[in-house]
Amino acid sequence: MALSINTNSTASSAASNLNTTNVMLQKSLQRLSSGSRIVNSSDDAGGLAVSMKMGAAIRRTDSTSINLANAQSFLKTQDGAFNTATKVLNRMSELATLSQDVTKTSSDTANYQTEFTALQSQLTALGSEKFNGVNLFDSGGATSTVYTNEDSTTSTTITKAALIDNAQMAAAISAGTTVSSASSAVTATTNINSALQALATMRAQNGSEASKIGFAQEMLTTNKNNLEAANSRIADVDVAAESTQLARYNILQQAGTAMLSQANQSSQSVLRLLS
Questions:
Q1: Phi, psi of 38 (to 5 degrees)
Q2: Is residue 74 part of a domain?
């Protein structure tokens, strides 16, 4: 190779290699400090697009999980009202039976009737219970749709049962249903038993809906875990591998700096020829 003063191709090559090493070293440092394999869109444009979609799906999954948990809370509150109604009906049934006792005076029967009437009012009040301002029960037994996956392609329903508006319950809380006499108490017992059967059906419906939502929550959790794992493979840095690369770039930087110094000094041999 000819000796020249204006051009030092060896130094230029060494400088180019050093610049490349410095760029890679900075990228490695950014990846390790951020924990992300894709720091800039230019690092992996396609991977970034996929990661963004997965990230959005993960966030929607979290929101859907919250919605399902709230639906479960709604159903649990509804079932609590059913449980209370069961206790009220059971007590009404007791009062109806006690009123048939031949040893009871008309005053005793009147006392039973007072409590019986109060319990009928309590059942009526249960029918207007709400959860966060939303009615737990509906006269028509309306249903509400609950979406069970992040893209809203699958769903289930929860029923706002007609707690006091169905025929059986209406008969039990009717003003005509009394325990003021033995004969009326017999009729009241029949009405109450029918109401209990209707209530059992409503509780069974509530339980089946809660079970469906519970399984949907399990599937949602599984989907989220798999989405996070897939997104991690795309977007998260492999710390072990990147640490190895960082050590490599550090060595190359030191070697490149040393070689650039040597290349810059090589042109000084021209001075010895001119001296």
A1: -105, 100
A2: yes
Cα 176 to Cα 71: distance, rounded to the nearest angstrom: 37
CATH code for the domain in which residue 66 is found: 1.20.1330.10
Instruction: Read off φ and ψ for residue 147, nearest 5 degrees.
Output: -80, 135
Q: How far is CA 205 from CA 75, 198, 219, 242, in A?
A: 10, 11, 22, 55
User: What's the pLDDT tens digit per position in 141-151?
Assistant: 899 999 999 99
Of 256, 246, 248, 265, the closest CA to residue 17 belongs to 256
Domain presence at residue 147: yes
Burial class (CB in 10 A: 0-12, 13-18, 19+), 95: buried
For residue 70, give the nearest of 132, 124, 151, 126 by alpha carbon. 132
Q: What angle do CA 152, 154, 156 make, to 5 degrees?
A: 110
Q: What is the C-alpha separation between 169 and 174, in angstroms, rounded? A: 8
What's the domain range around 226? 46-234
pLDDT at 40 (0 to 100): 83
CA distance 99 to 178: 10
Mean of all residue pLDDT scores within the chain: 90
Q: Give backbone dihedrals phi and psi of 158, rounded to 5 degrees, phi first.
A: -120, 140
